[in-house]
Request: fold
Amino acid sequence: MTMTAGSLFPAAFALGVALAGAALPLGTAHAGGAARGAQAAVLPDAPGKALVEQVCATCHGVDLLVPSTRTATQWRDTIGAMKTAGAKASDEEWKAINEYIMGNLAYLNVNKATAEDVRLVFSVADKVAQALVAYRDKQGGFKTLDDLKQVPDVDPKRVDALKERLTF
Ligand code: HEC
Reply:
């Protein structure tokens, strides 16, 4: 970290105060809702979950992360904003957090996505993501989940698992 503590601290402090004020209504809403007492259970089980809970729950509950219809692009902005707010993790940890959030929470428009976002959201090798994008561009886009399943090397089970989060 090369940022100066002097410029970061007041911002983090001000955000912390703002959040403390917001904690009450959030908590109240949840006390009467379906998520009661299940804060840690809302994130899907997958590698990186424990890390996300550890790093992202320092300032607010992980219930702020789900449910969410944020796209990969929006998540990238949100994660950037959390870093600015003072969220701390090593480069390796940020990589794992990013992979967890993109692979388990992010929505993706498969007709507009970059290969990088395809890689993260589909949780596939870079080579497979590049192949998907090349196939899409050659075909003139995807219309259905079945179209996606035709891409060589793409696991149809992964497509089904992602069906709620893919848009066309
Ligand atoms: C240093 C404190 C801090 C940490 C650590 C932190 N956040 Fe936040 N987060 C905040 C604050 C403050 C807000 C409220 C800001 C706002 O709503 O503008 C917030 C809001 C959010 C929101 C709601 C944003 C919105 O637009 O509704 C999401 C999602 C979120 N955080 C995700 C994360 C994730 C993911 C992590 C872990 C990588 C994380 N946060 C770690 C301080 C933090």
